[in-house]
Write a structure and sequence with these properties.
Largest sheet: 4 strands, parallel
Number of strands: 8
Radius of gyration: 24 Å
Structural class: alpha/beta
Distance between the termini: 36 Å
Strand content: 5-15%
Helix content: 40-55%
Strand order of the largest sheet: 2-1-7-8
Order of helices and strands: EHEHHEHEEHEHHEHEHHHHH
Number of helices: 13
């Protein structure tokens, strides 16, 4: 059994749960897509050679990537500005051509330096499976079952890779209504197509073990817009606090001081033992809120400046 998920933490947790049950027999492979691909190039010289490396490459960090981009720009005369390719050697060179030339140069430099990015690693190895290269036939025979967790986060390329195990039985777990990684290429239409496909068996998992009854009821009310084919009404035996939602938006989508003060006042009117979360679009708004909370007094708070991924997730939610 090959179990694929998207984070090392999830893969570790799944393996721990499996081992605690003491099922016995051969333990499944619990891996992320990236770690599975890296495991193959680390343990199989034929696969390593097939992707163009003589020795196992080091995964490039942010500094490595910047250095590779700079070298490729110098060698090709194509400058990368804010993610856009700009030709400095030819005004007539099209963007698509510039992109291809720059990418080719970057790949060559990476191989010369013995480096590889996570995306390039995954793409190179997965392409061997999708094209049914002879070097991977033994792995397609090895895994009789493929299990994919958080399936709503897969993109078309990852689905093509999983589907390439044509003789294996596939089991995927996901929630089409939690598909918020579109900015990373995730495509929720894949899980929806499987839900519509009568050749697939659909099992709806309604018991929720992490959330309270009130949170489940809130989520159920929120999801009523969706088709019953993709929606799962969840339930929980756990009791908990009420769920309230307040949305404020200032001028130009920025939160002003008055809005923050209004939120703080509403929190101060609530019972002292209740917890609250205040979400903002920008770190500057977080800093402003912290200043107001300090001067307001009476509230204990933790300030967390959310990262780019979290910002993108929140943006996807509001855009939809």
């Amino acid at each position: 059994i090959l179990v694929l998920t998207f984070t090392n933490a999830a893969a570790f947790e799944m393996k721990e749960r499996y081992l605690r049950r003491n099922v016995g027999g051969r333990c499944p492979e619990f891996r992320t897509f990236h770690s599975f691909c890296y495991h193959l190039i680390s343990s199989d010289r034929q696969i390593l050679k097939s992707i163009g490396y003589a020795s196992v490459p080091k995964v490039a960090d942010d500094n490595d990537c910047r250095m590779i981009e700079q070298k490729a720009s110098l060698q090709t005369g194509i400058k990368c500005i804010s993610g856009k390719k700009k030709s400095v050697s030819s005004k007539t060179l099209k963007d698509e051509e510039s992109e291809k030339i720059l990418k080719k140069a970057q790949h060559r430099i990476m191989k010369e330096l013995g480096l590889i990015t996570f995306d390039e690693l995954c793409n190179s190895v997965c392409n061997l499976f999708i094209s049914d290269d002879p070097v991977i036939h033994k792995y397609k025979k090895q895994f009789e079952y493929i299990f994919v967790d958080e399936f709503q986060d897969t993109d078309k390329f990852q689905w093509d890779f999983v589907s390439s195990f044509s003789e294996s039985k596939l089991f995927v777990v996901g929630d089409a209504l939690q598909a918020i990684y579109g900015f990373r290429g995730a495509d929720s239409s894949i899980i929806k197509k499987l839900s519509d496909d009568d050749t697939w068996t659909t099992v709806k998992l309604s018991d929720n073990y992490r959330s309270t009854r009130n949170i489940c009821n809130y989520a159920n009310d929120f999801s009523k817009y969706a088709s019953d084919k993709y929606r799962v009404a969840i339930s929980s035996d756990r009791s908990g606090d009420r769920v309230l939602e307040s949305i404020y938006s200032g001028v130009n989508r920025n939160v002003d001081k008055e809005s923050i003060l209004e939120v703080v006042k509403k929190i101060q009117e609530c019972p002292k033992d209740e917890n609250h979360a205040i979400l903002f679009r920008t770190n500057s708004e977080v800093s402003q809120a912290c200043s107001i909370l300090v001067t307001s007094g009476g509230l204990n708070f933790v300030c967390t400046k959310i990262n780019t991924d979290a910002m993108n997730i929140l943006k996807c939610v509001t855009d939809n």
